[in-house]
Amino acid sequence: MKKLEDSQVEAFDTEYVDDVRWETIKAGIDQGFPAGKFTFLDLGGGNGRFADRVLAAYPNSKGTVLDSSEVLISRNQPSERKTVILDSVENFGRIDARYDIVFLHWLLHHVVSDSYAHTRRNQIWTLNAAGEHLTAGGRISVFENLYDGLLIDNLPGRIIYRMTSSRALSGLTRRLGANTAGVGVCFLSKKEWLSSFREAGLQVIDYAEPDTWSWSLPLSRTVCLNIQRRYAGHFWLGVQ
Ligand SMILES: C[S@@+](CC[C@H](N)C(=O)[O-])C[C@H]1O[C@@H](n2cnc3c(N)ncnc32)[C@H](O)[C@@H]1O
Q1: Which strands make up the sheet holding 82-86, listed edge to edge?
Q2: Which residues line ligand 1 (CB under 6 A)?
Q3: CA of residue 224 to ligand 1 center, whole Å
Q4: In sequence order, what E strands does 49-196 have?
Q5: How far is CA 25 from the centre of its chain?
Q6: I need a surface site. Which of 8, 165, 166, 216 has the fewest CB within 10 A?
Q7: This prediction's pTM
Q8: For residue range 179-209, what is the model confidence (pLDDT) as tens digits?
Q9: What spacing in Å lies between the alpha carbon of 151 and ligand 1's midpoint?
Q10: Domain range holding 72?
């Protein structure tokens, strides 16, 4: 899998799960683990702020944050209930433990390789491996930015992958605002994610669009990228 440079991950030193999104996560945790006692693995958990929020809300929980960015991992607040691992998700098969919850928040569009087909296999492999690291009755939480196409369902994500993964176009895509320029990013439509979950042996327990997130794009870009709708979606998944 390709690795983003330090300057590219700086933009991720933030917390994407705001109070509204947190309500969706909390409702799923409370439903699955009413006693509030569980272990979790936050893949691509970066600076650990989300893990800290879970640990603070559930004093009987324990968590592990894994991320490939040394810069973001070094910004984790230490906690005796938190383990921090600097590694790429592609090596997480080395972790010899199972977790009640695996969080995959805005990570799956980053597991890119040299071709679109290989990148899609990485996404399904990561989902499948997450399922294999679950305890019985465990759940996976996926947050993603979903891109539904106007004429062809999954076309926007394919175009964005081609543009952002091209080194030749990296100057242009950087100017257009892509912090993944030259490396690549692989967004999917909701329908394509649902099919990928099935392929990875996972089933959807719950689905929500917790916020009205929309980031405005000039009409010309919406048309060129064939975007019908772009929004944040959350999936709770279990093993089939
Ligand atoms: C968009 S950020 C999301 C961060 C966090 N999950 C959140 O919701 O705020 C993507 C994160 O995935 C990490 N990442 C990208 N590729 C990775 C890989 N192959 N293995 C582990 N982490 C990766 C980045 O370093 C970054 O922290």
Answers
A1: 82-86, 62-67, 39-43, 99-105, 134-149, 227-239, 202-208
A2: 1, 9, 12, 15-17, 44-46, 50, 67-69, 72, 88-89, 105-107, 110-111
A3: 28
A4: 62-67, 82-86, 99-105, 134-149
A5: 14
A6: 216
A7: 0.93
A8: 777 778 999 999 999 999 999 999 999 999 9
A9: 31
A10: 6-146+187-213+231-239
